Amino acid sequence: MFNSETFGKLNIEQIPEKILAFYDKNRKTDGVFQIVVGTDSQNFNDTKMVTVIAAYKEGHGGIFFYEISRINRITNVQQKLNAETSRSLEIMMQLAGELEEESRFKKMREDTLLSIHVDAGWSDKGKTKELIPGLVGWIRACGFEAKCKPESFAASSIADKISK
């Protein structure tokens, strides 16, 4: 079940309709319409994982939905990023399937860039730099764009804030 500050609780099958309404409202404005999925997690006694679906048009705002799940604690950074990326891909594939299934989403789907946001960055101080090529390759092999920090706001900003 996904949550939205605007729309309340929704299952993933209800989200494309909300995104379509936002798309229709902003269709004639400049810029690329994007749907992104990003996941971040924080360790407590377990691992709290937050997955975000965001739809936006730069300069015209956006909407987002989030899901919180709890899984067995993951302490290894590579395993954690793999779990986060796997969850983002799972949700994006399900969402893309919903968008492809119904003809009323056809125009929106043709005009939309789908991307996965990964909570990993290129900083030499971080532990994730060396993992990025594999994660980005995995995402692209699945047919989606990939963004890492500092461009991965769905994971590194929205999901990060909710996961704490």
Task: Give the proportion of residues in helices.
Answer: 25-40%
Which word captures the global form? globular
Structural class: alpha/beta
Query: What separation lies between the terminal Cα atoms?
Result: 19 Å
Main pleated-sheet profile: 5 strands, mixed
CATH class: Alpha Beta
The CATH topology annotation reads as Nucleotidyltransferase, domain 5
Radius of gyration, CA atoms, in whole angstroms = 15 Å
Order of helices and strands: EEHEEEHHEHEH
The total tally of domains equals 1
**Sequence stretches where pLDDT stays below 50 over 5 or more residues:** none
Task: Compute the number of helices.
Answer: 5
Taking all residues together, what is the mean pLDDT?
95
Task: Explain how this protein is built.
This protein is of the alpha/beta class. The chain has a single domain (2-163), classed as Nucleotidyltransferase, domain 5, CATH 3.30.420. 38% of the residues lie in helices and 29% in strands. The chain has five helices and seven strands. It has helices spanning 15-26, 77-101, 106-110, 132-141, 153-163; strands at residues 2-4, 8-10, 33-43, 47-57, 62-71, 112-117, 145-147. Strands 5-4-3-6-7 form a five-stranded mixed beta sheet. Helix 4 (132-141) links the parallel strand 6 (112-117) and strand 7. The chain starts with a strand and ends with a helix. The relative contact order is 0.19. The model has no long low-confidence stretch (mean pLDDT 95).
